Amino acid sequence: MDADYAIIGGGVVGLSVAWGLLKRGKRVTVLDGDDGSFRASRGNFGLVWVQSKGMKQPRYAEWSQQSAAAWGAFSDELADATGRDLGLEQKGGYDLHFSEESLEERVADYEVLKGKLGGDYPFEVLGHNALRKEEPAIGPKVAGAILHHQDGHVNPLKLLRALADDVRRLGGRVLTGKTVTDVSRNGAFRVRCADGTQVDAGKVILSAGLGAMQLGPKMGFRAPIRPQRGQVLITEKLPKLINRPSLIARQVDEGGIQIGATNEEVGLDDRVTAPGLAQLAAEAVAAYPVLARAQLVRSWGALRILSPDGLPIYQESPEMPGAYLVTCHSGITLAAAHARFLPDWLEKTADAPDLEVFSEDRFAVS
Fold it and tell me: What domain range is 255 assigned to?
């Protein structure tokens, strides 16, 4: 066999899992798509985010918390190995609100979730004046915010590059420009690509993002995922204006303000649109009026990978035991968990996390 694991998909999710398996001494081959592939890893917002996740499924909140707690050591290890500073900051993040009513409603939701988590949900409510002390650039239209202390952000492109570098350094093979067309099993798995490449492996992980829509059913998965477009703006490099990130804007480690993101059900269309960008700009200026004078230098659209309930899917194929579907829309937040803890689930060790609630059984129709 060529590898213990063949991983289909070379984005942050696939590379994080590959890194973790290599750290456990496994032989890994990653098959990454061509330049025409949809790539959420290159277009996301870069948040390491806990708040608001798991409102209807507390296990998702716990899983996000576990990953956020592991992120610091994960980032340090990658930086030490590759010399790449990922720009990680975990000093908390804001859920900004433009009305007292919406703020109060969200606080009530968070209190319910906090109770389900046994009190482990560290947030505080900041009225406008308290928020202004933390963020002098905040505008008068912002009524207040929820500051969640487990949140943060990272440079996602530096993360992707560091993972690719370290996977190779650890002995993993990363094959680029590979479009997987078929996976079969006759003892070992055989992964076939459009250009004739074949990889034989003991196990297979499908982490190809939206590519799982076509390949998943061939491997025995339901793979009920869909695309959702998010458009993003970024400004010129600016002096320090924003101290902590929010879902509206964050100041990246290189100085620009990243503004986003839309949530659009438009199928496989990742183009930017004037109405979408105008919406983002208006909301950002309402939150931080100083941005009205900032020069915009880039915009892009990317497609999220969403399950019907927004939660990750971790599933072993009932038709092809040893084949796994690993997919989520929070690949940055969950990168540390995928690197540190998911390999135990794949290997079925005594330390394996309980991920049963994330199986495809939740989509079964009785």
Answer: 226-306
